User: What shape does this take?
Amino acid sequence: MTQKDPIRPTDDDARNLARGLLRDATYGALAVLDPQTGAPSVTRVAIGTTPRGMPVSLISRLATHFAALEADHRCSLLIGEPGPKGDPLTHPRMTLTCDATFLHKGAPGHDDLRTHYLASHPKSKLYNDFADFSFVSFAITGGLLNGGFGKAFRITSQDLAATLS
Assistant: This one.
């Protein structure tokens, strides 16, 4: 007996759900590889988007995940949260595989990103300009969308491209 592939063909409803999860995210789980042990490590980070709609975070050099991303730019983001009722596993969530890129103060585009990020994360104004903080943008290399029970889809950066307009 062969097992049926549980991943459905990605359709417009799945793309719209994925775009909405990314657009509405204020935080997510960031998975990195510890540079000293190689073990996976997961932490919660604030999530925003760049002016082009791709995920971005503001991370302190003092955080262990900063060093991990400097050592290995590959990472993963889990976006989505359980709703107020029901089984948490029935609520939509999306895991994105990404390549992280730092945008330090003084780099081209930093000031524009800072302005954009502060519009959606006004409390970050308290620490945004501290010397140890840098933006990290996440280039999406692939992903999986779980839209609820029995609703699994593969997601590409092209599927999320409508967030770029």
About this structure: The mean pLDDT is 91. The domain at 7-81+90-147 is CATH 2.30.110.10 (Pnp Oxidase; Chain A). The CA atoms of residues 33 and 40 lie 5 Å apart. The chain has one domain: 7-81+90-147.
